[in-house]
Amino acid sequence: xxxxxxxxxxxxxxxxxxxxxxxxxxxxxxxxxxxxxxxxxxxxxxxxxxxxxxxxxxxxxxxxxxxxxxxxxxxxxxxxxxxxxxxxxxxxxxxxxxxxxxxxxxxxxxxxxxxxxxxxxxxxxxxxxxxxxxxxxxxxxxxxxxxxxxxxxxxxxxxxxxxxxxxxxxxxxxxxxxxxxxxxxxxxxxxxxxxxxxxxxxxxxxxxxxxxxxxxxxxxxxxxxxxxxxxxxxxxxxxxxxxxxxxxxxxxxxxxxxxxxxxxxxxxxxxxxxxxxxxxxxxxxx
Length: 286
What we know:
The chain is α/β, with parallel strands linked by helices. It is about 20% helix and about 25% strand. Helix 1 (about 60-75) runs parallel beside helix 2 (about 130-140) and helix 3 (about 180-190) runs parallel beside helix 5 (about 230-240).
């Protein structure tokens, strides 16, 4: 499997099917995995399908995930695959989701199982977010051999997160990060099964968040007007992250770390006098 891994993901190359050991390619390693030695299925972009099942079969998050992972699993469309004549073809991955609830919380169940049978594999999970984690694992079982053919290793997997809160922090106050980079960062979190983006959005250095009620905060507190996050930007990031199983938790640090608030809101910060000398810069929130 090849994809545009971002920042903290390791790339692997498989020269031939005999060299592929699934356990070496799964990240993070599932809680329980048992692979049938030497057993693999051929998988073709023309014939392979994802199939939703269960109460959550029609969830928008699941449907969009199917579309996303087809691109990940079959990235190389220039090479014509040369599948062995005696290869067994895997026709579909059936994803059975028990719940229609798309709410993502700290205690959301992200567990899943994967089993292979003749011509198909089945992924079972209580929630659509377990489906995201399981489909990521399935995609890591797929590899391309030196003839251009795609294969998937036959493994029985039972997995759940070791930690419910798996977070990456980004600081956009000290160093403004463009929206397209934040979205790519969320993609990388999906590949690595993180589920919380801790967005340290403002601090002493700048106030890039655009407020409807207090627009001067960003107009006077951001580095400049090219370095702000509009309400539309924030909504886009939250929705994009949710579709990839990531909650966005913003941090507005107070009463400390609020110097950037002062220019946009006069009399908000505390004047800290030295004897009778007025301060050059005010202190923290009143």
